[in-house]
Structure formats: C-alpha cells, structure tokens
Design brief:
Length: 329
C-alpha cells in the first residue's frame, strides 16, 4: 500500500514538474518573440491551470502573434488567467472591449476592476470617461474636464508611459491646462513641451505641430531627440501619411512652409521632401486659402522663387475666390 501511494505521489510530482517546464519554455519562447514555438507549450501549461500561460495566450490571440487573431479565444484566455489568480489581464480585457467591440460600459467595468486591484494604467483609462463626451454619454454621464484632469494628474506618470492614443491625448491636454494656468509639471518641466511630446508619441502629429506654433516653442526635444525645426518637419510630413481631412492636410503643409519661411531655413528642405515653395503649393492643392494668398505674395515679390506676376495673379484669384483679401498686381 505504501508503495502504491509513493508511486501515485511521484507521478503527480512529475506531472506538476512537466507543467512548470511547459510554462517556463513557453514564456522563454514568448520573450524571444518566437510566438509559434511558444504556442504549444503555453497551451499545455494553460490546461494545467497556470494563469500566466492563459494571459500570454490571451495576448497572442488578441494580436495574432504566432497564431491567427481570435478575439473570442483571447477574451476567454484573459478571463481564465484571472480566474486562476494571475495578477494581470483586467486592463487587456478592458482594451479588448473598448477597441475591438466598442462596448465602452463593459470596458469601464474592467478598468474599475483593474483599479480595485491596483493595476498600473487603470486610472488614466477611467479618466477618459470624464474627458471624452461620447464615453461619458455611453455610461449615462456628462463630460467633466475638471474631474478628468484631477484623475490624470494623480496618475500622470502612468499616462505618459502609456501607448494608448486616447490616454496620451488626454495627458497632453492636461499639460496644456497647466501651462495656460501658469503651472509646471513635477521637476519644473515645461508642461506645453511635454504636451507636444505626448502628442507625438500618440501619433497626433497635426495637433503637435499646431501646439508648437501656437505657443511659439523655441526648443523642443521629442522622443527621438530632434530639435524643434526637425520635429516640425517630421510631424507635418508624417501626418500626411495618415487619413486626415484635406482641410487639415492643407494646414499641415502651410505650417511646414511657414516655419521654414519664418526661420529662413533652407538647409533641410530637400532632406524632408519639400522645398518651401513646394510645401506651400502642396498646401494650396488641398484648398487651403491662406496658402494660396501666400503663394501670390511670394510669386509677386520673388520670395523663395523667381518673380512671376502671372502666377501671382493666378494664386491671388484663387485666394480671392476663397474669401481672402488680396492686393492688386
């Protein structure tokens, strides 16, 4: 009898050891981004009740890493990981409901659960429901900017480290609020400069360029350590690759051209794809009236191009048709 008990216990210990090996092997492949190799090991570990394996599988099925993307399986794996006691997954489940299913109330439930469990990143996401009107209305409320800023201020470092575009935009607007009220961030950082960095990180290139122009920032270092002039060129040029309305694209290229014009910056023109006059013509091609008038001025005065009164009249005519006051040439 004792021998039988010993055999049973040995078998159970071996099974547990094999399950642990499956988890460790799967985790190692996952960390090396060898997701297809990690998949069978993590699946085996998940069947043995390892919450971490379930969590990693949830991410793999959510992003389609090493397997086909499957939101149903992803949701099930995240939930199973939580049931098995793993200390991550609420934020990911919330993001799945938020971005994939657009079920904002259900997403908020998960964000609140994450907050109750002291998860990093929960507070900035909860703050979104006070800042964005559509999110506030989805839970039967109204926007409350003061509350949103209070929440984001209490979790600013979490927001700044986030990769969520909505969170980053909210954090940037909080920085603008501080700047306009004569306040600074911790360690005396210039709030509006930080706002531009956050907008850039969140791929809000147009908004970043406009903010820089509005506050006439003299020096700004972004995440790639570029000074302001390269930053302006970068954000405006990159913004044109995204699906912005023509009116906004027109203003982007106008900002690009005017920045180079005002700083007499010719050195970097060709490196960034557009000459000063080329940027302004690109802006005008999107129907941006200020660019049309500026082209009239430049062709009339021979600025950044040879003097050409015929072209000046053509651009002035287009600008006038758009409602601008133009001189007689």
């Amino acid at each position: 009898m004792l021998k039988l008990i010993f055999v049973v216990l040995s078998t159970l210990c071996c099974a547990g050891a094999f399950a642990q090996v499956n988890l460790e092997t799967g985790r190692r492949y996952y960390n090396y981004e060898s997701y297809s190799s990690a998949l069978p090991y993590l699946q085996a570990a998940a069947k043995e009740g390892y919450g971490e394996a379930c969590y990693l599988l949830g991410r793999m099925y959510y992003y389609g890493m090493g397997t086909e993307k499957n939101l149903t399986i992803s949701e099930r794996m995240f939930r199973r990981g939580l049931e098995f006691g793993y200390d991550k997954g609420e934020i990911e489940l919330g993001d799945l409901y938020f971005y994939s299913y657009e079920d904002y109330p259900k997403a908020l439930e998960m964000y609140k659960l994450a907050y109750d469990n002291k998860r990093t990143g929960a507070v900035p996401r909860i703050a979104m429901y006070s800042f964005y009107s559509d999110l506030a209305e989805s839970i039967g409320g109204k926007p409350d900017e003061a509350k949103a800023f209070e929440l984001i201020g209490s979790s600013f470092d979490e927001a700044a480290w986030s990769n969520d575009r909505n969170v980053l935009y909210l954090a940037a607007m909080y920085c603008v609020f501080l700047h306009e009220n004569g306040k600074v961030l911790d360690r005396n950082k210039d709030a509006v400069k930080v706002a531009c960095e956050l907008l850039y990180k969140g791929r809000k290139y147009y908004e970043a360029a406009c903010l820089m122009r509005k506050y006439n920032i003299a020096v700004l270092w972004c995440s790639y350590m570029r000074p302001q002039k390269l930053f302006v060129y970068t954000v405006v040029k990159d913004a044109s690759r995204y699906d912005y309305p023509a009116s906004e694209l027109g203003e982007m290229f106008y900002i690009y051209g005017m920045f180079a014009h005002e700083h007499n910056d010719i050195d970097y023109q060709m490196n960034w794809g557009y000459s000063i006059i080329g940027a302004m013509e690109k802006s005008a091609s999107y129907g941006y009236v200020p660019a049309m008038k500026m082209l009239g001025d430049w062709y009339s005065g021979g600025i950044h191009t040879a003097r050409n009164l015929l072209k000046a009249r053509e651009w002035y005519a287009k600008a006038k048709a758009g409602g601008a006051d133009v001189p007689e040439v």
